[in-house]
Amino acid sequence: MAEREHEHVRVAVIGSGFGGLGAAVRLRRQGITDFVVLERAGSVGGTWRDNSYPGCACDVPSHLYSFSFAPNPEWPRNFSGQPHIRAYLERVTDTFGLRPHIRFDSEVLSLRWNGEELYWEVETAGGVLTADVVVSATGPLSDPKVPDVPGLDSFPGKVFHSARWDHDYDLRGKRVAMIGTGASAIQIVPSIQPTVDRLTLFQRTPPWVLPRADRRISGLERWLHAKVPATRAARRGLLWGIRELQVSAFTKRPNELGLIEGLAKGHMKRAVKDPALRAKLTPDYRIGCKRILLSNTYYPALTRPNVDVVASGLKEVRGNVLVASDGTETEADAIVFGTGFHVTDMPIAHRVTGANGTTLAEEWKDGMEALRGTTAAGFPNFLTIIGPNTGLGNSSMILMIESQLNYLVDFMRQLDVLGGKIALNARPSAVHAWTRGVQRRMERTVWNTGGCDSWYLDSNGRNTTVWPGTTAEFRKVTRQVDLAEYEVLRVPAARRGERAGQTVKAVA
Predict the structure, then answer these.
(1) How far apart are the first and last CA of the chain?
(2) Rg (Cα) of the chain, in Å, rounded?
(3) Cβ distance 51 to 41 under 8 Å?
(4) Which residues in 269-333 belong to E strands, given as ranges?
(5) pTM score of the predicted model
(6) Mean pLDDT, rounded, for 6-16
(7) CA-based torsion, 286, 288, 290, 296: positive or negative
(8) 3-state DSSP call for residue 406?
(9) Alpha helices in 252-311 (DSSP H)
(10) Is the pLDDT of residue 497 over 50?
(11) Which of these, 101, 151, 170, 419, is most buried using a 10 Å CB contact count?
């Protein structure tokens, strides 16, 4: 696109999960209405739309896992299920009038920076447009990861990932293999165990599991939260404060987590009486190195007569026989993969071509890095919500998202203040300095020293996922844009003159 021939918008937001909808709300509240939200599916919700597997729920308390600007006094439980969270996002969409801005069935196929005109050329499944600013809110938990298992293509039964659950396939009476033991698997296992004929869990690495302090939120509590907003704010503040106090143990003093390990072992021992099974389920790494999981039903389900735990990963498939790395063979009618997502190798990065003619994936081949987790050098006016090193191991991602939305709003304000047709490009020196600081702090965290191989680490063994500090600290460092960290790009003088000439000719 040498010349602008298509619709042009001030901002194009990619994705309509928490990040995308939050960006849309903040843009509108800032008075920016010339924007679109590009959504590849037919409805909003992001990961809370895609993940609809049995038992799907959040492991962060409801009153903390919601926008501060859109409180919900009607959460039914301490930890809400997927249907309630998805309904909340639909309600946010309607309350803030976002639907006119959303383009459904418009998956972004490519993004290319036009350095002459200083805008992004955006090709979607629904057409082409250009945008001054692009906000990528695709999220790290959006594209399922299925391992390349030899023989999987020849499996005669049903195969699907937990994030693409096939609700038309009835698991009742089937022999089911569950691959993986992450946050999704520990919710799926107890949900399907009572109805399947046989359930075999392939466990490459056992997780640490703590009790889930879930309960129904009473009608009186909900009435108070609706009529006396201060009670709702106090509840959220308490939930936030407790988690902020936990951060130092994860980031500075991992040895203090030994007490929590004792609680987890006690939780297991109460449910699992068989010493051999307990041995299989006991991790050999420091708690917190991988995400700590919460469940009251996972361990009891594993003790049922129709459940087998294979303490090994899936190695190959021979017809309907699944072979584990330790040689164990299991017959199955269906395989459910709970094997996570493309987190450190986000697929959207392959579709974004920056100012140097290289893709974001190419620039990130040695590891993702972005200034304040948001902007990458060589990709002007391109911001990522939940970018590198913005993840959390113990609190609500909505807090991090809102901090990045503050940064987005100030980014737009800086563009307006500078005036004219301009773009801000993160300086490589600023990006590298920020990344070095984050990685230096990461060295002593439990995620790097705990002795596990987690999805927080990229292929080079570097933790490019988690934020090594408190959410309050992240909010402070993303409160405003420091222009010293950016190169200000303007349309070349020759191009400005050409435009002026075209304008004079048009008037004449």
Answers:
(1) 27
(2) 24
(3) no
(4) 293-294, 307-310, 314-318, 321-324, 329-331
(5) 0.94
(6) 96
(7) positive
(8) helix
(9) 258-271, 275-281, 298-302
(10) no
(11) 101
